[in-house]
Every structure is written in structure tokens, then in C-alpha cells.
User: Which sequence fits this backbone?
């Protein structure tokens, strides 16, 4: 009466699944995107303020700012930046895996309003006159000092401007190059300051018939020169950015957090597996095999929707393991109830499955409601938690309905266990006669 | 002494459970009102600097390093140590500018060899986070009550929400008692508990509904005593799975609390407390409360007829 085919199906499927998981999971985890709390990086919420008082921040200004920030992020070469406008006048920037966070933050938010003025602060040229990618770090051929070379769009215009200045009486024949000139700033006042906004004030004795201007001198070292050229090339920000929320996690912190939490996860999963085996015997074996496949499937879905794994996300995955076996527990307990009432193994299995589904659905949907609310209100890492929780719950349905039922079904229908009710965790003494 | 949870009479001492619960709730409310919560910078605004080192950190040394970065040690709001003193969590009332962040990071990295983590929250954003947290808790509770009311009956919904608010209150009171920092992850834990602790209540109610339908077969009226027997039997029948489903999640939460990263320790602890209180409330509050409320409707219909 024992159907060997069913037993064979069970073992073949289990082995096939294990091979699939074993061979592809390293690829799967490599493919998983890590959040900034795991691989280091920073997140800043900027409030966009007008440069000049009275200017309005409207949608056009916001999208121009977004583009400017995106250009700058491209300069930084971050692989997966997340930049989005939030609630009218805010921009959230998340950069995971940035090497030099301080530099990145500087590059992101400096307005970089370049202007060429005379000593009387009259505007002659500005950033818009700079050629695309027109700024680059160079070295003085004689002294080998670092300098920033600016290439202008129009050689003629630059000639005119330098001609104008060269005709001014000495020592006022200077071409003053400003960064972030604000109304009220004057050449005389600014020159006396430390960290001056004036990056160059070279004498111009005759018109320059070239499209090149050069910033050199004290403040320009190789690093600052490179940074300045990057900012200038990315274009000026049309607005001022105020940091109103920020988190930065160093790569070392992130790695420690990842290692510790992965270790904790394995302990948690092992404990749950052991518990299931001891308490539910055969149903427990099925639960553990299903669990492996469950984790695998969650990661596939998670990567599939391009979600980013965060520290609380890992916590959600592990909690999800604890919750996923709930479905197995509810079903296994239900089967035990049916067995105790004197039913056969096969009909207990069928009744247990049928009656437990509604309960499992209700129990999981409430958690799904919570996770949905958390997703709506949460930001960044908390959102990562909510997404993982939702994915976990949805996958629970799939593995519980299709996978564990299939496995247990094969075993039960093989009729090998018809007389072995203790294999389901039921004591003979508890079974009532029908 | 042996205790068999499948034979225990759960409803006999329900007045005692109600008394204990009411007392606990009162103590919790007083605790939260007078002792308050240790709000982290996510809600209270400010700056947090996490310093990690290979050696055990000394408080005075940390203060000196902070001063080297151009800050006044008076600005420090608090220093907490973790992981055997190799991790220091320094909070400031003020919100650092990005230049200050860069400088502080540099000084600390030069001193301890590891770049610290720095977070800032402005007062405005802190207020928003707090407001959103309250909205989220209310919205999730409302959604679950509605769901339970529709899937079951409004009476089950009311019993569920009472149990649920009890769980949330207990978590908050626990954090108030031990003055553990409340941050964004705490809210995530509370919402998870709101969603999850209902599970046991639902499993029990599911069984109550099933047993009640069985008893009412053929239009038979069920009196209060029989209703009590049904609730008790349902609790006895579902107690093992109620405990086991929580135990598995509890195991994962404990693993995260003991072995997990420092930054989710508070989160794991909130889950732990919530899970245990959720188990208590679904057995000793939700089902019993439903029994009392349902019993009231029975006596009303009796008077009416």
C-alpha cells in the first residue's frame, strides 16, 4: 500500500531545491543592493532656500536644483544614487558607498556661483559663460603649482572684458573671480578676510586674446583644485541648500553592523528550525525545508523589485522567518487536532489544510496593514524594513500554500505514515476514538 | 507542580486579570507622564556622533577629543557606552553644520582610527517625525480594527483594539521605566507589534467563532455560561499554537537583541516586550473582554424578549 513514487517525488524535489539554492544563492546575495547603513554612505535632506531674498521656490526651481544635484552626483561617481524631491521644497539625497563623505557633501551643496567682476564689483561674466566641462585642474609649467584652468565659451567676449579691465588705471586693473558672490559683498571688504570668496584677482595689463582664464595661488592645492573644477563643471546651483536632516555611516560601521546582524540572523533561523523539528517532527522537517526555499524566494522578490537591503531590513527578514513558520505551526496544530479527534492521517491533513488557510490569511493581513502604514510614513532605512516585511508576508502565502503543502502532501499520500501519528507530534494517549 | 495549558481554566479568574491589567495600565500611564521618555535625536532634534574604537573608550578622553574638534564639552547632551565600552554614543542638543560634521569626523578618525557615524536632525524635522509616528500608530490600529470588525464582528474588533493599545502602552512604559532611547526604529517595532500581536487574538477568535457556530447549530440559543465554556475551550485548544507562534518570532528577536548590531538593539528589545505583552493580552484580555461584552448583549436580548 505504500506509494514509493510519492516518497521519491518528495526527495527528488527537496534535493533539486537544495541544489538550486546552493548553486545560485551566492549570486543572489551578490546581486543584493546594500543600503547606506550597511555599506557606509550618507543621506541628507536638504531644504531648498532662495539665493536672493524674495525669490520663490517653485517647481521649475526644484527641478533645476534636482538636475544640478544629479550632475554633481555624477561627478562623484556613486553607482546607485537616490535623489528625490520631497514635499514641495525638499530634496533627499542618499548616497551609499561614497569614499570621501566630507568631500561629497561639500560638492553637493556648494552653490558654485562663478562670477568675473572688476574691482568695483561690476559683473562682467558668470558661470554661464564657461564652456561645458570648461574647468580643469592643471599645473603651472614653470613652478609646477596646481591651478584651475577655465575655458570660456566665447574668446571674443573674454577679449572684450579683459580689454575693458586693462584700460582701467593701475592698480585697479584687476580681473576678480568670485565664488558665491552675494549682494553687498565688495572687493575691498572680501580681500581682508580669511576663506575669502575671491579665488583670483590677477592684474590684466593687456587684453587676453585667448579663451582661457586661470585661478591659482594660495588656496588652490591639488585636492581643492580638483574639487573646484568638478563643481564648476557640474554647473551652479540656482538655490541655497540647507541640511535639515542627515545621517552618515562610515563603511567600517556598516560592515560591522552587517556581519553582526547576519550572524544573529543565522542563530535565530537555526533556533527556529530546531524548535520546529523538535515540536512538530515530520511537519517540522517540511517546515525547515520550506523555510530555506522561503528565504531564497524572499531575496529573489526583494532583488526583483530593486529594493535596497538595510539593517532593519535584515531584521525584518529574520522576523519574517519567525512569522513564516507560524503558518506551518497553525497548519500542523490543526492537523494534530484532527488526528486527536480520531481522523486518519490523510483526512487530517486535508481538513487541517482547509481549515487553517483562513486563519493564516487573517493573521498575516493585519501585519501587512502595519507594514503598509510603515512604508507610507517611513523614510530610507525604515522604508527598507517595511518593504522587507511586506515581501516576507507575501512570500509566506506562496511557500505555505504551494511548497509546504506539496511536500507534506507527498509524504502523507505515500501512506508511509498512516500508522505513525506520533511522527506528527501527537501522543497515542491523546487520540480519541471516533 | 505541573501546569497543563490545555486544561487550565482561563475565564474563571477573569476579574483578577482585568484588575491586574487596569493596575498595569494605570502604573504605565503614571510612569510615562512623570518619568517621560528618553527621546533620541530623531524626535528631540540635535546631533548624534557614534564613535567606535578598538580599545575601551574613556569618558574624559572622549570629551577631550570632542573639544579638539572646536566644540564646547558643555554642548554634550549625553554619552552612552556600549559593546564593552568600545562604542560611544555622544549626543548634542545643537544641530551641526556640515563643516562641523566634517571637522568632528576628521578629529575622531585621527584619534581612534575609525570614521565615526554622525546624524543630525533639525527641530522642524524632529517634530514631523514625531507627528508622523503618532499618525502611523493611529492609522495602523484603525486599519486593523476595521479589518477584524469586517472579517469577524465589531465586538471582536473592539476587543482587539483594547488588547492592541495595551501592548503599545506596555512597550512605551517599559522604555520609559528603563529610560532606553526612543528612535525611529522604535516606531518600526511598535508598528510591527501592532500588526503581529493581533495574530494570536485572531487565531483564538477564529476558534471561538467556529465553536460558537457549532453550538448555535439549528438556531439554538447560547447562554452566558455556555459562552464562557466555549471561550475557555477555544483558548485551551489554541493555546499551544498561540504560544508557539510567538516563541518562534521571540527566538529571532532574542537572537537579534543578543547578537545583532548595536543600532537595532533598542528595536529588538521593543519587539521582545511587545511580543510577550501581545501574548498576554490576547489570552488574558482580548478573549475575556469579548466574553464580557458578548455576555452583555445576551442579557439585553433576554430582557427584550
Assistant:
Amino acid at each position: 500500500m505504500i506509494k514509493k513514487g510519492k516518497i521519491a517525488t518528495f526527495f527528488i524535489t527537496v534535493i533539486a531545491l537544495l541544489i538550486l539554492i546552493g548553486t545560485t544563492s551566492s549570486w543572489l546575495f551578490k546581486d543584493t543592493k546594500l543600503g547606506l547603513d550597511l555599506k557606509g554612505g550618507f543621506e541628507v535632506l536638504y531644504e531648498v532656500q532662495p539665493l536672493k531674498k524674495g525669490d520663490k521656490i517653485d517647481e521649475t526651481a526644484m527641478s533645476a536644483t534636482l538636475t544640478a544635484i544629479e550632475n554633481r552626483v555624477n561627478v562623484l561617481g556613486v553607482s546607485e544614487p537616490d535623489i528625490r524631491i520631497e514635499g514641495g521644497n525638499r530634496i533627499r539625497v542618499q548616497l551609499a558607498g561614497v569614499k570621501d563623505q566630507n568631500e561629497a557633501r561639500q560638492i553637493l551643496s556648494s552653490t558654485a556661483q562663478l562670477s568675473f567682476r572688476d574691482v568695483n564689483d561690476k559683473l562682467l561674466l558668470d558661470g554661464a559663460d564657461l564652456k561645458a566641462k570648461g574647468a580643469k585642474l592643471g599645473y603651472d609649467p614653470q613652478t609646477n603649482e596646481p591651478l584651475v584652468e577655465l575655458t570660456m565659451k566665447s574668446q571674443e567676449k573674454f577679449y572684450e572684458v579683459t580689454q575693458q579691465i586693462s584700460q582701467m588705471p593701475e592698480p585697479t586693473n584687476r580681473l576678480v573671480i568670485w565664488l558665491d558672490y552675494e549682494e553687498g559683498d565688495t572687493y575691498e571688504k572680501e580681500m581682508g578676510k580669511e576663506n575669502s570668496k575671491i579665488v583670483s584677482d590677477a592684474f590684466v595689463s593687456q587684453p587676453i586674446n585667448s579663451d582661457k582664464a586661470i585661478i591659482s595661488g594660495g588656496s588652490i592645492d591639488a585636492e581643492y583644485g580638483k574639487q573646484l573644477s568638478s563643481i564648476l563643471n557640474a554647473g551652479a546651483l540656482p538655490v541655497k541648500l540647507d541640511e535639515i536632516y542627515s545621517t552618515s555611516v562610515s563603511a567600517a560601521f556598516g560592515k560591522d553592523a552587517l556581519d553582526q546582524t547576519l550572524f544573529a540572523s543565522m542563530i535565530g533561523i537555526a533556533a527556529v528550525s530546531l524548535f520546529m523539528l523538535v515540536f512538530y517532527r515530520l511537519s517540522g522537517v517540511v517546515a525547515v525545508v520550506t523555510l530555506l526555499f522561503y528565504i531564497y524566494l524572499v531575496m529573489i522578490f526583494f532583488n526583483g523589485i530593486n529594493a535596497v537591503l538595510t539593517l532593519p531590513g535584515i531584521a525584518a527578514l529574520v522576523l519574517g522567518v519567525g512569522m513564516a513558520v507560524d503558518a506551518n505551526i497553525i497548519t500542523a496544530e490543526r492537523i494534530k487536532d484532527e488526528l486527536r479527534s480520531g481522523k486518519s492521517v490523510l483526512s487530517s491533513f486535508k481538513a487541517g489544510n482547509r481549515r487553517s488557510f483562513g486563519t493564516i490569511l487573517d493573521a498575516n493581513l493585519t501585519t501587512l496593514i502595519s507594514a503598509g502604514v510603515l512604508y507610507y510614513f517611513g523614510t530610507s532605512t525604515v522604508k527598507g524594513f517595511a518593504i522587507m516585511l511586506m515581501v516576507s508576508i507575501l512570500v509566506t502565502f506562496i511557500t505555505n500554500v504551494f511548497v509546504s503543502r506539496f511536500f507534506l502532501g507527498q509524504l502523507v499520500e505515500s501512506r508511509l505514515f498512516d500508522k505513525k501519528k506520533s511522527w506528527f507530534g501527537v501522543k497515542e494517549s491523546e487520540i480519541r476514538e471516533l | 507542580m505541573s501546569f497543563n495549558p490545555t486544561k487550565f481554566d482561563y475565564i474563571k479568574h477573569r476579574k483578577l486579570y482585568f484588575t491586574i491589567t487596569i493596575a498595569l495600565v494605570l502604573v504605565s500611564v503614571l510612569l510615562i507622564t512623570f518619568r517621560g521618555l528618553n527621546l533620541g535625536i530623531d524626535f528631540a532634534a540635535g546631533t548624534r556622533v557614534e564613535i567606535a574604537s578598538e580599545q575601551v573608550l574613556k569618558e574624559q578622553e572622549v570629551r577631550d577629543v570632542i573639544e579638539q574638534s572646536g566644540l564646547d564639552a558643555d554642548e554634550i547632551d549625553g554619552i552612552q557606552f556600549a559593546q564593552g565600552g568600545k562604542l560611544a554614543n555622544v549626543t548634542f542638543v545643537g544641530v551641526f553644520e556640515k563643516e562641523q560634521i566634517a571637522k568632528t569626523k576628521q578629529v575622531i578618525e585621527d584619534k581612534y582610527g575609525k570614521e565615526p557615524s554622525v546624524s543630525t536632525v533639525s527641530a522642524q524635522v524632529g517634530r514631523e517625525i514625531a507627528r508622523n509616528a503618532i499618525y502611523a500608530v493611529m492609522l495602523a490600529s484603525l486599519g486593523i480594527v476595521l479589518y477584524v470588525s469586517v472579517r469577524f464582528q465589531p465586538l471582536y474588533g473592539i476587543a482587539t483594539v483594547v488588547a492592541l493599545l495595551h501592548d503599545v502602552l506596555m512597550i512605551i512604559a517599559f522604555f520609559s521605566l528603563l529610560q532606553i532611547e526612543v528612535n525611529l526604529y522604535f516606531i518600526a517595532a511598535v508598528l510591527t507589534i501592532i500588526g503581529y500581536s493581533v495574530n494570536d487574538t485572531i487565531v483564538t477568535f477564529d476558534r471561538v467563532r467556529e465553536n460558537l457556530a457549532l453550538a448555535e447549530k439549528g438556531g439554538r440559543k447560547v447562554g452566558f455560561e455556555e459562552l464562557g465554556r466555549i471561550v475557555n475551550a477555544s483558548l485551551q485548544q489554541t493555546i499551544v499554537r498561540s504560544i508557539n507562534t510567538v516563541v518562534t518570532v521571540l527566538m529571532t528577536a532574542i537572537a537579534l537583541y543578543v547578537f545583532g548590531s548595536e543600532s537595532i538593539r533598542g528595536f529588538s528589545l521593543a519587539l521582545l516586550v511587545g511580543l510577550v505583552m501581545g501574548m498576554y493580552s490576547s489570552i488574558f484580555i482580548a478573549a475575556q473582554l469579548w466574553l464580557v461584552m458578548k455576555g452583555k448583549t445576551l442579557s439585553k436580548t433576554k430582557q427584550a424578549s
